[in-house]
């Protein structure tokens, strides 16, 4: 009988060890549906995201970002000392409105997964530094998302590499 217990114990310990050896990313459950949506678009445009996902420690809602009349930060990517993005954080206040939440979340996801910098200061685009009206962006959502993905550095990179493959094929 004790042998059976021992075997179970060993199997149990091994599975615990292998679980802890796996990399994991903490994703706030309130952001998970938007992240799933975002990855579905990545799949549709053939943009890889797995490696980038596991470079992150967390994708989180926080109450530590500034919030004031003139200087609110709705979301942010945090970098390590090598300048690589290690977490994506969203200001809790954004949770108050679903439309603003999806614009801010896609904006921050795109910094990391689509390798975006800002496209403008204030031009009613997802990648603007700020937007006078988040609702204008949200109302035009499908077009906004298409524009976001098709003009992204990560997408242009995949197109470039697939073009090179077809030239090689012709030769
Ligand atoms: Zn930004």
Please supply descriptive tags for the structure shown above.
alpha/beta; Collagenase (Catalytic Domain); four-stranded mixed beta sheet; 11% strand
Strand order of the largest sheet: 1-2-4-3
Could you spell the SSE succession in H and E letters? HEHHEEEHHHH
CATH topology: Collagenase (Catalytic Domain)
> What is the radius of gyration computed over CA atoms, rounded to a whole number of angstroms?
20 Å
Main CATH class? Alpha Beta
Bound molecules: zinc ion
The helix fraction, in percent, is 40-55%
How is the main sheet built?
4 strands, mixed
End-to-end Cα distance: 69 Å
Q: Helices and strands: which structural class?
A: alpha/beta
| Total number of distinct structural domains | 1
Count of DSSP H/I helices: 7
Strand content: 5-15%
Mean pLDDT: 88
Q: Identify the CATH architecture.
A: 3-Layer(aba) Sandwich
Total beta-strand segments: 4
Task: Provide structural commentary.
- With 171 residues, this protein is α/β, with parallel strands linked by helices.
- The chain has one domain: Collagenase (Catalytic Domain) (3-Layer(aba) Sandwich).
- Helices cover 51% and strands 11% of the residues.
- The chain contains seven helices and four strands; from the N terminus they run H-E-H-H-E-E-E-H-H-H-H.
- It has a four-stranded mixed beta sheet, covered by helices on one side.
- The protein is globular, with a radius of gyration of 20 Å.
């Amino acid at each position: 009988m004790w042998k059976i217990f021992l075997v179970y114990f060993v199997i149990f310990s091994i599975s615990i060890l292998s679980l802890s050896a796996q990399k994991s990313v903490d994703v706030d459950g309130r952001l998970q549906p938007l992240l799933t949506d975002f990855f579905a678009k990545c799949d549709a445009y053939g943009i890889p995201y797995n490696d980038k996902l596991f470079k992150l420690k967390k994708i989180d809602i926080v109450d530590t970002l500034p919030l004031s009349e003139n200087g609110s930060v709705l979301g942010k990517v945090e970098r390590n000392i090598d300048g690589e993005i290690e977490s994506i954080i969203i200001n809790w206040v954004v949770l108050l409105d679903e439309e603003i939440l999806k614009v801010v979340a896609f904006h921050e996801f795109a910094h990391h997964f689509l390798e975006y910098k800002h496209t403008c200061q204030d031009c009613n685009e997802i990648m603007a530094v700020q937007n006078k009206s988040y609702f204008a962006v949200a109302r035009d959502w499908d077009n906004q998302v298409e524009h976001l993905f098709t003009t992204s550095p990560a997408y242009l990179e995949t197109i470039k590499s697939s073009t090179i493959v077809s030239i090689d094929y012709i030769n």
